[in-house]
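Task: sequence design from structure.
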């Protein structure tokens, strides 16, 4: 084998190895993103449940304003207010890494899950590209539900 063919074979092998390593890294990053995305969704669900429980147990809460939270499906969170027939629904779409929010008034939106600086995931609204904290989502949704007329 000549020096040229040895060099050419080595360069070719290195390119193939680099491509394979890059592809493996992409798959690994996607898997990590999916796991982190699920954790963000779980944190959001937990925030909703905690705030609803705190609201319902507050002595100033009227019985007609009681909120319920159904999270029997791990990808769907349904929030209802006593006396209202319509529920607010949050759906986690793991394929697209979005949370679809179907609620009263202007709450119909999609929240995109994206990586922030430092690789922490955040929510981005479609109306603007400013990050939205989980607690901001919770308070906006619950305020909208409680402001609806029965």
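Answer:
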């Amino acid at each position: 084998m000549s020096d040229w063919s040895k060099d050419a074979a080595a360069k070719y092998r290195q390119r193939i190895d680099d491509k394979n390593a890059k592809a493996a890294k992409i798959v690994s990053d996607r898997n990590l993103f999916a796991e982190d995305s699920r954790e963000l969704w779980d944190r959001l669900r937990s925030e909703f449940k905690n705030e609803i429980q705190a609201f319902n147990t507050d002595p100033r809460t009227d019985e007609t304003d009681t909120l319920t939270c159904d999270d029997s499906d791990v990808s769907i969170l349904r929030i209802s207010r006593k006396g209202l027939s319509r529920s607010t629904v949050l759906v986690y779409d793991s394929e697209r890494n979005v949370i679809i929010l179907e609620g009263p008034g202007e709450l119909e939106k999609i929240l995109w899950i994206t990586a922030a600086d430092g690789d922490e995931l955040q929510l981005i609204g479609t109306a603007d590209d400013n990050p939205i904290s989980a607690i901001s989502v919770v308070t906006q949704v619950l305020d909208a539900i409680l402001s609806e007329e029965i």
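Helices lie at 3-57, 134-147.
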